[in-house]
Amino acid sequence: MKYLRQAPPRYLLVILVVVVLVGLPTQIPSFQSGEWAEVLILSIAIMGLNILVGYSGQISLGHGAFMAIGAYTTAILVHNYHVFYLATIPLAGLMTGLVGLLLGIPALRLSALYLALATFALAVVTPSLIKRPEAFTGGVEGILLPPPEPPQFAQDAFAAVTGGPPMDSDQWLYYISLGATLLLFWLAWNILRQRPGRALRAIRDSEAAAAASGINVAGYKILAFGVSAFYAGVAGALFSLLIGFVSPDTFPVSLSFTLLVGAVIGGLASIPGPLVGGIFAFWLPIYSGQWVSTQDWIPAQIATVFKNAGPAVTYGALLILIMIFAPNGLAGLILSAYTRLRSRLRGAGERTTGQLPPDPQTV
Amino acid sequence: MQLFLQIVISGMASGAIFASLALALVLIYSAMGVVNFAQGEMAMFATFVAFTLIEHGANYWVAFAATLGLAFVGGVFIQRVVIRPVERAPILTLVIVTLGLATLINGLAGFIFGLSLHLFPSPFSTQTVSVAGAAITYRDLGVMAVSAVVLVLIYALLQRTRIGLAMRAAAHHPEPSRLLGIRVSWMLALGWGLASVAGAASGMMVAPLLVLEPNMMQTVIIYAFAAAVLGGIESPLGAVVGGLIIGVTVNLAGVYIPFVGGDLELAVAFVIIIAVVLLRPHGLFGRSAVRRV
After folding, report:
1. Does residue B271 sit at the A interface (CB-CB below 8 Å)?
2. Which terminus of chain A is less hemmed in, N or C, by CB atoms within 10 Å?
3. How far apart are CA B114 and CA B146, in angstroms?
């Protein structure tokens, strides 16, 4: 066991994850690349939510609405103004970020509970608001987007690596999403490990104490809203390109719930958490449905109902169980297990100092 | 004028329904300082229970009463099992837990009762009676009467009985109440039970106007939020007044403001929520909060 005494540094783990993510589409069928692209997109939105909820301590139950703004910005720019689709992604982020900043100002005046109520109402109202300006948003029918064609060099490179057919649009969108994910996670890591991150956590834990230490409380809280919305906007833009279609019903209230579930499962105020959360939020309902239909002892009738109603049951039960038993989420569970393992391997001398979790319990 | 009166009265009927659900929210808010996001789903589940009883041949009013009783037990059960472990946790945790509860109950309803749409019977006919020239349905009047009875009973229980006094004491001053020998935690559970009863009544009243399905209460709960916030989220009387105001306003806006029409009525409730929390956070009947730093 001696080689384990020096636990591998974290950057090795990061490199491993990046390598797996880059190589993934070469190993799986194309349609699964599309599914994994959705996982990455969810992770981006969850990271946005995590910055807001986990770090600044403000709650939003309406991040699906921010995704809708980003998605519609992209769809309208591409469809009505023929803007190049890649250029619309940052624009959608900025547009949503601006809306987030503007919403952040009234949010300052709201207590946590009222903010939850107001953003929840926003999530419920958004679909019917989108339907209104029909000439612009396409009304109930929504807007169709052409699948983006991967550039020639990417098609050739992909074919050369896999020895199979050239890259298709799902795989191309996977790589665009991966690029955005890496960039935005790196950005979040930089923001949250430095002065702004410390300021946000100070505000979260005690606004009065933060203000007393000279932190611009209002400024940072608004900024957190803006950055968080920016992430959701980028995710929405990518989502609209991936499914090639936006309509009011693409962004139901349950999407906002899914994001919250992802943030909580992954672990609030954790940087790898949103990726874990994205994976769970996407695959959990699918796998739980599939698992049930393979079990012989469950009658077929119940299995079909479960496929439709099951995700809600699993999500709901998980949310409650995690909040009761592991408020730091899966990432928190893994980290504390890792810390415990490390301190045990290092010997008893350090155990007393080695068991503190990296972040204090946040929720 | 007759049309106006007609709209106001049917608005009051829906307002009475919102009031019951808002009262449920207020009961739980006063006990633990958090809005129960699962209130609507609990009401929906209770309505399904009533529907099942009626389907199996129970008389409407027998099913109604039985459902209220079961709702009470269910509310107490949920508080004991799900809420109690996180009773002292921060607001964010509680909000997430009640949201999880909402999702869970919604899924369970789909699981147990199926996802198909049902027509829920109403004990009142839809024939109209003329009141000052306006045609009012018996159903609207009945809904108002039933809601009024439920509200008055809950009010009387809270204000006129020993156990109601203990419940109020436990909610507002838990530590002194405990010293006086009140079982605070059980009082909170009773609060959940009562809230569940008020919610169940609103669910059974609203179901004939809508279609019974697992997502039935998703819009109704927004109106109830608006009502509770407008009334000053801690005030039972405020919830009732707020509910009536929301019901009438939304109905009037739907008819008289062309832009709102039928499908943006929910947005009216949203605007009311935002306006109240920004301009007058303690609502019509609440006290403005003073925070100790």
Report:
1. no
2. N
3. 28
DSSP characters over A128-186: HHHHSSHHHH-GGG-EE-PPPPPPHHHHHHHHHHHSSSPP-HHHHHHHHHHHHHHHHHH
Give the Cα separation of A74 and B45 in Å (integer).
40
Helix runs in B56-116, H state only:
60-78, 91-113
The residue among A143, A125, A115, A109 whose CA lies nearest residue A58 is: A115
For B255-278, what is each residue's pLDDT tens digit?
887 777 667 778 888 888 888 888
Coil, strand or helix: which one is A56? coil
Closest CA to A242 of A97, A21, A44, A48: A44
In whole angstroms, give the CA distance from residue B170 to residue B168.
Answer: 5
What are A128-138's pLDDT values in tens digits?
Answer: 888 877 777 77
Place of tokens 């609440």: B286
How far is CA B42 from each of CA A146, B98, B214, B273, rounded to the nearest angstrom? 43, 11, 10, 22
| Residue A120: closest C-alpha in chain B | B222
Calculate Rg over the CA atoms of chain B.
19
Q: What interface predicted TM-score (ipTM) does this complex get?
A: 0.81
Q: pLDDT band for position A358 (50/70/90)?
A: very low
Indicate the residue of B91, B101, B103 with minimum beta-carbon distance to A113. Answer: B91
